[in-house]
């Protein structure tokens, strides 16, 4: 229970931030503005989604409400999917945290960013080939037909708080369920046992990716956890910090708020393949050894 509470408490500030950003997008950014700013072509949309991570940063704990609102505003699936995958890694806070977590190792930080970009491209392209991969989210309209919040009887600020509250509560429910299962794993699998499983090559990468799913550490702290597995190879550590922000126990339930189980399965399998192959090639090349 303590671990479950720790996960929830660690994620709460980021869920709150994500909900506030989501609400600001809903209240002050009109559908027309969003649609006009979306580039043509899947490739350019994916690139835009990746760059959006720098301007609307969020770890995986707060990404779901933001993606819901972006989709509701008319952002195409490839762009929002690429943003969803890239944002937990390619944002200023996480990049600094990664650099610190790996003891000032710039190469590990760069490798993590590059693998995240590869995964974002793969998922963005996957979603471009699927029909309606995200659940449709209808935006509320006011009597004047405006979605900017300026005609709301409660005022713009009240509108922001109301939408942020709704997103926060819905996301928190899914996070709490996921955190419970993550905490249960910690009880059943002591840290001493995990540290005893070490090695190099393909097996180590797979094991660390599984650990990332089960441990459910936020992307702002996962590099510190990964670097503590001192007997594992650098490539396997990269598998941990790249796959965890895309898929872990808490995200299973949070993703269900925006996509079907079928869509989630395709996304997870694609991401796992991209991260695993990239890390395996890095290991074969002898990176960090």
Structure description:
The chain is mostly helical and 289 residues long. The chain has one domain (2-134, 156-284). Helix content is 70%, strand content 0%. It is built from 14 helices and no strands. Helix 3 (42-55) crosses helix 5 (77-86). The two termini are 38 Å apart. Residues 139-155 have low confidence and may be disordered.
Task: Summarize the model shown.
With 289 residues, this protein is mainly alpha-helical. Helices cover 70% and strands 0% of the residues.
Defining traits:
single chain, 289 residues, mainly alpha
Radius of gyration: 19 Å
Tally of separate domains: 1
Mean pLDDT: 79
Instruction: Give me the secondary-structure category.
Output: mainly alpha
Largest sheet: none
Number of DSSP helical runs: 14
What is the share of helical residues?
55-70%
Strand content: under 5%
CA-CA gap between termini: 38 Å
What would you call the shape?
A: globular
How would you name the oligomeric state of the polypeptide chains in this document?
single chain
What series of H and E elements makes up the topology? Answer: HHHHHHHHHHHHHH
Low-confidence stretches: 139-155
How many E strands?
0
């Amino acid at each position: 229970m303590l671990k479950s509470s720790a996960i929830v408490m660690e994620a709460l500030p980021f869920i709150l931030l994500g909900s506030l950003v989501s609400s600001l997008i809903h209240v002050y950014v009109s559908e027309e503005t969003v649609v006009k700013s979306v580039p043509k072509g899947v490739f350019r949309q994916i690139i835009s989604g990746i760059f959006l991570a720098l301007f609307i940063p969020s770890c995986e704990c707060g990404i779901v409400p933001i993606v819901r609102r972006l989709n509701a505003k008319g952002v195409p699936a490839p762009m929002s999917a690429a943003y969803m995958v890239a944002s937990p890694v390619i944002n200023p806070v996480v990049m600094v945290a990664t650099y610190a977590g790996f003891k000032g190792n710039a190469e590990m930080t760069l490798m993590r960013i590059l693998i995240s970009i590869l995964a974002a491209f793969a998922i963005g392209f996957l979603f471009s080939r699927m029909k309606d991969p995200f659940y449709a989210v209808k935006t509320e309209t006011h009597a004047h037909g405006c979605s900017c919040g300026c005609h709301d009887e409660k005022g713009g600020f009240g509108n922001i708080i109301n939408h942020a509250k709704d997103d926060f509560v819905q996301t928190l429910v899914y996070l709490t369920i996921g955190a419970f299962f993550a905490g249960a794993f910690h009880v059943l699998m002591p840290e001493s046992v995990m540290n005893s499983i070490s090695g190099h090559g393909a097996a180590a990468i797979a094991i660390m990716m599984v650990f990332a799913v089960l441990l459910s550490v936020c992307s702002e702290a996962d590099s510190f956890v990964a670097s503590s597995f001192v007997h594992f190879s650098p490539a396997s550590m990269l598998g941990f910090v790249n796959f965890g922000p895309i898929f872990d126990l808490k995200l299973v339930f949070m993703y269900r708020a925006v996509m079907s189980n079928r869509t989630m399965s395709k996304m997870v399998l694609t991401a796992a393949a991209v991260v695993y192959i990239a890390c395996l090639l890095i290991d074969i090349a002898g990176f960090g050894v």
